[in-house]
Amino acid sequence: MKNFFKIAQNNVLKTNANKLLLNKQILGRRSLHINSTYKSPLLANNLILNGHKSRFSIKSALLNKKIEDGQNKITENTQKVEETSTPTHELLAVKEQEANRSLGDSKVQADFYKLLLKSGYAQYVISRYETPGIATSPECMGLYMEALTNVGRHVEANNIKQALLGKPTETVDAASGQGEASAKANTFAQAQPVMSQAAAPIMNPMFGTAKEPMHVVLTESTFTMVFRVVRYIVTLGLLLYLLNEGVKFLTENSTLFKNNEVTDNAIDTSKANVKFDDVAGVDEARAELEEIVDFLRDPAKYEALGGKLPKGVLLTGPPGTGKTMLARATAGEAGVDFFFMSGSEFDEVYVGVGAKRIRDLFKQARARAPAIIFIDELDAIGGKRNPKDQAYAKQTLNQLLVELDGFEQTQGIIVIGATNFPESLDKALTRPGRFDKMVTVGLPDIRGRAAILRQHMKKITASKDVNIENIAKGTTGFSGAQLSSLINQAAVFACQQNATAVNMSHMEWAKDKILLGAEKKSMVLPEATRKATAYHEAGHAIMALYTKHTEPLYKATILPRGNALGVTFQLPEADKYDITKAECLARLDVCMGGKAAEEVIFGKEHTTSGCGSDLRSATKMARNVVTSYGMNEKVGPVELTENWEMWSGKVKDLADQEVIQLLKESEERSRQLLKNKDKEFRRLAEALIDYETLDRAEMDKVIRGETLDRPKYRTNNVVDTPESDGRKNIEGGIAASL
User: Fold this and answer.
1) Each residue of 683-737: pLDDT tens digit?
2) HAMAP family attached here (predicted)?
């Protein structure tokens, strides 16, 4: 092949006809040698095209180089040769290279087919056209049909023609057709020209080209289509579920999405079933709110006379006195919607949320007027402003002030606020025109407590021995919430005791639990600790019994309750609203009685830390006597606590000295009284050791030396006193002295 192209190039350049004829003869001999060796024209052609190791193969690199060197000359010679009647082998070789380089160009293939037909190589046209990967076109198909006709395969050519025209095709004899094709193939093998191999194509045109793309339609089975649809639905459903769970997680755990707007907390008239009759023990506050109810029921009456109702009502008082219940009862009596929000629900960590919720709350109220807006714990957003505060910290309060100024009294919107610390509110909030009506809801007196107890006892089954007046007398200082808790705990305790009704003992148990704390029956106590507690509480009780101007003794116990190992409790006979100096000093003596008792029995070196709470109470009382009540002669009638830091050091030192002096004098009085009442003191202590808990009547019997009509009882597990406890050696002396 190398010699062939060398001769072809020389022949083109020199245009020597004799040498061209000689090369043609040589080419013919080489072709016949290859065909005779491999018995197949296609295999022989492939060997030539694929660079077989025979002596006729040629390296494509050298061929390409030579082609590039003589490209221009070959092109000129090709044009000259094409003008001749029969194409030369050199021209066929050049066209073959061009066709192999442009397998995807049907125009180049058609030109090559024409040249082959003109040279008499119809069988090679058929073989090349039927080879996959070579571009086709209607022109190429026509040349293919012409080649079929030239080799005698008229039936096939006619069938293709009929198929193109849409007519039925003729039946072809497979045997004859195969024999004819085989014969033509052998004939073609004898006349097969030697073709050179072009560079390998870089694309496969059987899948279409850029100029002539192939349209492909894929068909799938029904099962595959159904499976794809099901898989798509399942995947989409899973993604939607995960998305929903993610959004739910964000909304539940992030304040950025949660509570961005105020929920409609309005209570319809049918649901606001709390009336003034359900609120007891706050008659004065109820009277203050009745005028608001009257205005909401008949606003025209006030408008006719030009009267204006306060925009805001501020309810103040200790916790548990019924401020929220009063506001609900006001809405229930007036038959209007009730919007409730706590002050802590407005502000969040994000700036502007509180102001937005204030606007939303008033917007909802205006849309459903007449209505009542109740803001509990108003001090959470209405505290005094400080010039050093950041601007965002005051946005909620500023928005509330704007909203209070933004509606008229005749719009039928009443704002009620509640707080336990009215002194902490900003003055701009409590000025006239805003929260200008102050209603104090204080602790109920004895009649109020009795009314509250009756109200709550309607809900339980009580026995006839329950005396409401006695319970009210013994619950001085109780709020309405504490009284409600007392009734509920008594009912629960009665159920635990399998009682058919709540009796007085259940009430006393519940009251003791609230006053003294929960019992610690499982606590393990050393014997010395238990006896020291008994003498400590006996000291308090003796001081309460034999000191003038003290409150009546209620109960003493050495059963651990709350944080204390023992408790001595006093209850006033009636509600007290003031205190005298004599009563203050008497309270000091009662507080010091426990410490003095331990010193009398065990000595100063063995007093316990149980005196700490007593000393705190005594110190507080003594400081009030000196600095607040003006009851000290040396300090004088002055009040020092309001501006303590402004007083001189001399005045402060004097006040401190007088406080200490009062405490020392009280301690000495307590010690002296216990020594004078040594017999009563020791009897009471021993009775507490035996019976654990004694009321006032039982203590009176014990002091007189009488025996109680009930068995001795020990609730806690008592263990021996450790040897390291110095009080162990004193126990024998105590027992012997009794």
Assistant:
1) 999 999 999 999 999 999 999 999 898 888 888 778 877 766 767 666 534 433 3
2) FtsH (MF_01458)
Task: State how beta strands 693-695 and 553-557 pair.
Answer: antiparallel
- Domains along the chain with CATH numbers: 89-158 (no CATH), 276-440 (3.40.50.300), 446-516 (1.10.8.60), 525-734 (1.20.58.760)
Q: Residue 458 and residue 460: Cα distance in Å, rounded?
A: 6
* Structural tokens at position 591: 């507080």
- Pairing state between β 553-557 and 717-719: unpaired
Active site residues: 537
* E strands, 429-571, in order: 435-440, 524-526, 553-557, 567-570
Local confidence band at 481 (pLDDT 50, 70, 90 cut-offs): very high
Closest CA relative to residue 286, chosen from 312, 259, 250, 323: 323
Alpha-carbon span 505 to 347, nearest angstrom:
47
- Using an 8 Å Cβ cutoff, are 528 and 582 in contact? no
Nearest to 376 by CA among 328, 334, 311: 328
Cα-based distances in Å from 400 to 342, 356, 426, 604: 14, 10, 12, 61
Cβ within 8 Å of residue 298, ≥6 positions away: none
In 3-state terms, what secondary structure has residue 120?
coil
Do the Cβ atoms of 727 and 606 come closer than 8 Å? yes
Q: For residues 532 and 730, is the Cβ–Cβ distance under 8 A?
A: no
Contact assessment for residue 630 and residue 637, using Cβ atoms and an 8 Å cutoff:
yes
Indicate the Cα dihedral angle 644, 648, 653, 654, nearest 10°: -90
Closest CA to 151 of 139, 161, 143: 143
Burial 311-337 (b: 16+ CB within 10 A, else e): bbbbbbbeebbbbbbbbbbbbbbbebb
Q: What counts of helices (H) and strands (E) characterise the chain?
A: 30, 10
Contact yes or no for 125/195 (Cβ under 8 A): no
Helices marked H in 572-677: 581-602, 612-623, 649-676
HEC profile of 339-391: EEEEHHHCCCCCCCHHHHHHHHHHHHHHHCCCEEEEEECCHHHHECCCCCCCH
- pLDDT of residue 196 exceeding 60: no
pTM of the model: 0.60
